[in-house]
Design a protein that fits this description.
79% of the residues lie in helices and 2% in strands. The chain is globular. Helix 1 (2-22) packs parallel to helix 9. The chain has one domain (2-260). Strand 1 and strand 2 (213-214) form a beta hairpin. The longest helix has 28 residues, at 45-72. The protein has a two-stranded antiparallel ribbon. With 261 residues, the protein is mostly helical.
């Protein structure tokens, strides 16, 4: 149990730094780590990925709030861009949770790996275009619905999708990251509630689970991630946009390789 708790604390620390640096909520790292830990603990492979996704989303509530707060104080959140996307996210999250519940665990793992690779490619080739946010509210709402749905299926804070969306819309990389961090909070809130409700009827889940949320992992990861998110935000504001894009792409390629192979 001690080794297990330490692994959660380390995972949370890493996730917090990544959340602050890239506005991703940390879930893109937490899901693969929890998948590995849960398999090592002998949990049933048929629900391991669902448990990892649900737990990841619940931790992002705390990580996302900490990361968004750090970026807010650096004036790096564009609320004009945030509100319509966040509204769509709230609806998409609920639908995404129902879809994820229908998928086989191994299939879900492969989907996460494929999306991570796609994201790495698109964020690397994205170019800064204009300096003002031009997307209409309706487009932002529709995009947010899709982002919320996919992010909930993958167990991530959505920054992997909202950062490219805001970047293509013309925001600077640092503001993209800050606004994406804020968007991660409604994704985590609505997504984790949905996974709790959907898993309540599963009698095969391990002890200390609340639906598809494993409480020991939630506590350990949340305790450490909230303290390191501000470190990641400070790093993000100390390096160039180009370097942030490169580091983001490398991270996604590594995660894709793990989840696929």
């Amino acid at each position: 149990m001690l080794v297990e708790l330490i692994s959660y604390l380390i995972a949370g620390s890493m996730a917090g730094i990544l959340a602050g640096m890239f506005g991703v909520g940390g879930g893109i790292l937490i899901v693969p780590i929890l998948t590995f830990i849960f398999l090592s603990l002998g949990f049933n492979d048929s629900y391991v990925t669902h448990l990892a996704v649900g737990t990841s989303l619940s931790t992002i509530i705390f990580t996302g709030l900490s990361s968004a707060r750090a970026h807010f104080y650096k004036n790096a959140i564009n609320f004009q861009a945030f509100y319509p996307v966040a509204t769509g996210i709230s609806i998409g999250c609920i639908a995404g949770a129902f879809v994820a519940n229908l998928l086989d665990g191994i299939v879900l793992r492969k989907i996460i790996g494929i999306f991570a690779l796609i994201i790495a490619i698109q964020i690397y080739i994205a170019k800064n275009q204009i300096k003002t946010f031009k997307a209409s509210s309706s487009i932002a709402f529709i995009s947010g619905s899709g982002i919320g749905g996919i992010s909930t299926i993958l167990g991530i804070g959505g920054g992997s999708f909202t950062v490219p969306f805001f970047k293509y819309s013309g925001l600077g990389m640092k503001v993209c990251i800050g606004t994406a961090a804020a968007c991660g909070v409604p994704i985590a809130l609505f997504g984790s509630i949905s996974f709790v409700m959907l898993g309540l009827d599963n009698s095969n889940l391990p002890e200390h689970s609340l639906g598809y949320v494993y409480l020991p992992a939630l506590i350990g990861i949340s305790l450490s991630s909230v303290f390191t998110a501000s470190i990641g935000a400070n790093i993000a504001h100390s390096v160039s946009d180009k370097m942030l894009s490169i580091l983001f792409s490398i991270m996604m390629v590594v995660i894709s390789a793990y989840m696929l192979f």
